[in-house]
Amino acid sequence: MTDVSLLDDELKGMIGRAAEATQVVVTATAVKRAREVYFGVVAPPPAEGDEVEGVVIAALETSTGQLRVPDVMPNSVLISNEWEFERPLRAGDALTAQSRLADITERFGGQFGYSLYFRTEVELRDATGALVARTATTLMQYDARNARGQGQ
Q1: How many CA atoms lie within 13 A of 135 on its CB side?
Q2: Model pTM?
Q3: Which domains does the chain have, with CATH numbers?
Q4: DSSP helix/strand/coil, 22
Q5: pLDDT tens digits, 70-98
Q6: Rg (CA), the chain
């Protein structure tokens, strides 16, 4: 079991770093894809300016230019996705997305042994700079050989 921190100054120095801002658009295709995945239905495409379901943010996430976190440990698992909205998404919205590494924490022990948690946040802003939505993703990295009950 690992009992030495891998959260060194180089990793800590990454906290707060942001990726270059990118443009994302709430397209009819993004809305269609989200509706199919989350609701299992194909509905008529929304008209420009129509409010759309919040789950459409998931279809935009692949285009947000999220930061890649370093592969410090051999295994990873998505722990959480969080969405927060200041106003509804609308068909045709052209948004500026900027991702940043919000935090890195570590845990000693537990079911997975030593693990690192990387929290990445993305802010989506409209043309005026107003915050429209925020997403947060937490990814856990671990070494399965250190998992409880392994190699003992």
Answers
A1: 22
A2: 0.85
A3: 9-146 (3.10.129.10)
A4: strand
A5: 899 999 999 999 999 999 999 999 999 99
A6: 18
